[in-house]
């Protein structure tokens, strides 16, 4: 493995960390309805736990209401119970085979709690990026120890990985600020 490989691998993994963080942010609900909010809710489907999107059609009725249309008639009660029991604070209402999930308006207190959740998720993403930096630097040190690169090469590699880490952390901070602004907007 060369220094270029180390840098390329670290860059790819950091990009994946950012994508994962973006997906995590999509799950945190704001005042608006978003079908992806229900992705983390698991439903008991004949003994196995599946996400709602695999047992029903999830779509938007309007800006504040999600509709869930089960593919099987018997699943409506199970889906409704799973949504109600989730930690999302949603109260679904069944109307025949269709389940309507209205999104309650967020209180100021709930907005502040969600803001803390976003900041915590951002810190977790930063920790993951720093761990990737550490791994890349350890690879470079190992190459130096095995005398495959010079000390200057190792130092240059460490500097490049640090710059990459700094750029990634700045991007995570921007995502956190954007999501906080979205949550706090009334």
UniProtKB/TrEMBL annotation:
It comes from the Bacteria. Its main location: cytoplasm. Residues 21-184 form the Ribosome recycling factor domain. SUPFAM superfamilies: Ribosome recycling factor, RRF. Transmembrane segments: none annotated. GO terms for molecular function: ribosomal large subunit binding. InterPro entries: Ribosome_recyc_fac (IPR002661), Ribosome_recyc_fac_dom (IPR023584), RRF_sf (IPR036191). GO terms for cellular component: cytosol. GO terms for biological process: cytoplasmic translational termination. The keyword Protein biosynthesis applies. It is found in: Cytoplasm. Keywords: Cytoplasm, Protein biosynthesis. Gene3D superfamilies: 3.30.1360.40, Ribosome-recycling factor (1.10.132.20). Responsible for the release of ribosomes from messenger RNA at the termination of protein biosynthesis. May increase the efficiency of translation by recycling ribosomes from one round of translation to another. HAMAP family: RRF. Belongs to the RRF family. This is Ribosome-recycling factor. It comes from Sphaerotilus mobilis. The lineage of its organism: Bacteria, Pseudomonadati, Pseudomonadota, Betaproteobacteria, Burkholderiales.
